[in-house]
Design goal:
Shape: globular
Strand content: over 45%
Number of strands: 16
Order of helices and strands: EEEEEEEEEEEHEEEEE
Oligomer: single chain
Strand order of the largest sheet: 5-16-15-8-13
Helix content: under 10%
Distance between the termini: 19 Å
């Protein structure tokens, strides 16, 4: 058992984490550990979704997932689907905060600024990488170097799609905790 940063009591076993209600003993699923076993009271290699994406050129909500061992010395794959099938410029946003970006409280609606429809910035923009989408999917490979063990950061994807309002689709975010 451990206490999460928001004060919730968490526990788990194998490859799953749960929030525990101490008054009833009821466990509610909260996250998969992406192939990493829980060790002691510290969970390693965790990924947890935050918020939802907006509608992409594919007609559905853009969904972001991460995969890989999420441990130092490995490569994490960040993938979003639901974008239009034509090629588009995709940006991976890496953030250190999910509460503010340059003085703006997060999450922040992008609609008034960009003209998008129900798109939200979920993480600060501290670093970016770009690529081109293929078949409605944006995919990035992110090395997790040794000095990153125990770190937590956030990811979000944005894709230029001229056929939709505001010309961009945005995924929800994912919180990543890198294991040792």
């Amino acid at each position: 058992l451990s206490v999460r940063e928001d004060g919730a009591l968490i526990g788990g076993g194998g490859f799953s984490m749960y929030v525990l209600d101490p008054s009833t003993g009821t466990a509610s699923f909260t996250a998969y550990t992406n192939g990493s076993n829980l060790t002691g009271v510290v969970a390693s290699g965790l990924a947890q979704g935050i918020g939802t994406g907006c509608t992409g050129g594919g007609g559905g909500v853009v969904n972001l997932t991460v995969s890989g061992a999420l441990r130092v010395g490995t490569v994490m794959t960040s993938q979003s689907v639901g974008h239009g099938v034509g090629p588009g410029l995709a940006t991976l946003i890496l953030g250190l905060s999910r509460t503010s970006h340059q003085g703006i409280a997060l999450p922040a609606s992008l609609d008034p600024l960009l003209g998008t429809h129900e798109c939200t910035l979920q993480t600060s923009i501290d670093a970016t990488r770009t690529t081109v989408t293929a078949l409605g999917m944006a995919q990035f490979y992110v090395p997790l170097p040794p000095g990153l063990g125990g770190a937590t950061f956030f990811l979000q994807h944005a894709v230029v799609e001229p056929s939709i309002p505001g010309g961009m689709s945005w995924s929800g975010a994912v919180r990543v905790h890198v294991g040792m």
